[in-house]
Design a protein that fits this description.
heterodimer, A: 222 residues, mainly alpha, elongated, B: 201 residues, alpha/beta, Rossmann fold, five-stranded parallel sheet, 8 strands, globular
């Protein structure tokens, strides 16, 4: 447990210090959502209707932004070797890094989401629902992304490869995230089923992601 | 305690790096691995650290903690220092100490003083020189007690004063029953040691 917390706090510290990527994701998300009305035009009804989809797509891309360096920096400076030599299983180390990444990248993005409703003609209570779906769905994005991050460790310029590998796997999260948000805002479909499936996707990836990522990292040492 | 290797063979990318490596290291003993470049010295240390798979042969550590594996009882000092530039010297060491299993709340100052970095404890590691980073990495071995030290050319980037400090640390470690396996091209300050020549088949 000490080792788990030590790694979690170290990664959060690294993210908020110079050269860390803590707010990059949130800023990228902000700029994508702000640009959208300029591209689509001042059609308030249209913006209100596609608003949740824009927010979800922005969150999806933003959460991948800092992910490609997650294990690569540890690999480059030799930390990854030592991470493997602890009594704590590598799977748990991967979980700690994933949680730190979610707290520093996805959480700020969820916090600013309600404000962005202004740009997309979605009212404040509805934005609360969108933020709730993001809260339930972004852990899935992070923990699926861990697998891609582990795969891109040994590759230079692995960022694009990461996006190509990971984005197709996140399609179910996107589908159920947007449909839950839409159900909450305009109806008539009930909010419950897509939202619970979204939670299930997050929980499943929380379990599967670390095992897959740790297996990939071990294989990468060969 | 005893570290024993029987007919150890390692393959990488379909090529045999070394085969049939035999040695034993007892408590308090040191083994220096020598050989030309590419002979497999670093690979052998990475195998001992559990970072590379053994193709065939046996490797065992007897007489240590019951359920701990060899990597969990070993320190690996590789070519890379595992130092994060944006953390301070003390934060770097505290992290590795608690991650690798030092008792909670143990003070880091004795370990930093042992490598001569006590006065730089609060400096971001980005400002350290190559030799100072190396010393910070060595402080890890002092802060967390593990019986086996795997050192890959430990004296690289160290000045003569730091080499003397490292020699004293290694002597202390052996005096308390620790073992050292080191890869080296020249003398690294060990008083007595056995030698394993790689690349002679």
């Amino acid at each position: 447990m000490t080792a788990f917390l030590a790694l979690l706090t170290r990664d959060m510290r690294l993210a908020v210090r110079v050269g860390g990527g803590a707010l990059i994701g949130a800023l990228f998300y902000l700029i994508v959502v702000v640009m959208m009305p300029f591209a689509i035009g001042p059609d308030l009804n249209l913006l209100g209707r596609i608003g949740p989809a824009i927010l979800w797509l922005g969150a999806l891309l933003a959460s991948l932004l800092a992910l490609d360096r997650l294990f690569a920096t540890d690999n480059d400076d030799g930390s990854l070797d030592l991470l493997m030599m602890s009594a704590m299983p590598l799977e748990l180390a991967v979980v700690a890094k994933g949680i730190a990444h979610w707290l520093t990248t996805a959480l700020p993005l969820i916090v600013i989401t309600p404000v962005l409703g202004l740009m997309l003609n979605v009212d404040l209570p509805a934005m609360g629902w969108v933020a709730l779906t993001l809260l339930a769905g972004t852990p899935a994005l992070t923990f699926i992304g861990l697998i891609g991050a582990a795969l891109s460790v040994a590759l230079r310029r692995g960022g694009l490869l990461l996006a190509i590998l990971v984005l197709p796997l996140t399609i179910p999260v996107l589908i159920f995230g947007v449909s839950a948000a839409n159900a909450a805002i305009v109806g008539p479909a009930p909010f419950g089923p897509p939202f619970t499936i979204l939670c299930a996707l997050s929980l499943a990836s929380l379990v599967l992601g670390p095992f897959a990522a740790a297996a990939v990292l071990r294989q990468g040492q060969e | 305690m005893q570290l024993r290797s029987e007919n150890l063979t390692c393959e990488r990318g379909g090529r045999t790096v070394f085969a049939g490596v035999n040695f034993t290291v007892d408590s308090g003993a040191a083994l220096v691995v020598t050989g030309r470049n590419g002979a497999g010295k670093s690979t052998l240390l990475r195998v001992l650290a559990g970072l590379l798979r053994i193709a065939s042969g046996r490797l065992e550590l007897t007489g240590g903690a019951n359920e701990a594996t060899l990597p969990e009882q070993a320190h690996y000092l590789g070519h890379l220092d595992a130092v994060k530039p944006s953390l301070s010297v003390r934060e770097n060491l505290t992290f590795w100490a608690s991650y690798l299993g030092a008792p909670h709340g143990a003070p880091m100052d004795p370990a930093l003083d042992a490598v001569g970095l006590g006065h730089l404890a609060d400096l971001p590691a980005a400002y350290l020189s190559a030799g100072q980073k190396r010393r910070l990495s060595i402080a890890r071995l002092v802060a967390v007690k593990r019986p086996v030290w795997l050192l890959d050319e430990p004296t690289s980037a160290l000045d003569s004063q730091s080499q003397d400090r490292l020699a004293a640390l290694m002597a202390d470690h052996r005096a308390t029953g620790g073992m050292i396996v080191a890869a080296a091209h020249g003398p690294i300050g060990l008083e007595s040691f056995s030698e394993l020549k790689m690349g002679q088949s």
